[in-house]
Amino acid sequence: MFGIGTQEILVILVIVLVVFGAKRLPEIGGGLGRAIRNFRQAASEPDEIDVTPKAKKIEDDDAKA
Fold it and tell me: Stretch 1-5: mean pLDDT, rounded?
């Protein structure tokens, strides 16, 4: 797993626990999970097609005259 062993992961988790505290960890995990879910959903959806009508050139020419 990217050359990171069990001991390194434990050290990182302890540092995160000290920095953010035990009460904020579920909030951070939930936010991270939602972000990953939204990213995957956006990546798998097809691109939307823009169907807004363009301004007609004839109307623009009449407005200038």
Answer: 75
- 8 Å CB contact between 25 and 17: yes
Q: Contact, 27 vs 36, CB < 8 A?
A: no
pTM over 0.70: no
Question: Does residue 20 contact residue 28 with C-beta atoms inside 8 Å?
Answer: yes
List pLDDT tens digits, range 9-34. 899 989 988 998 888 888 988 999 99
Show the 3-state SS of the chain.
Answer: CCCCCHHHHHHHHHHHHHHHCCCCHHHHHHHHHHHHHHHHHHHHCCCCCCCCCCCCHHHHHHHHC
Tokens (6 digits) for 10: 């434990």
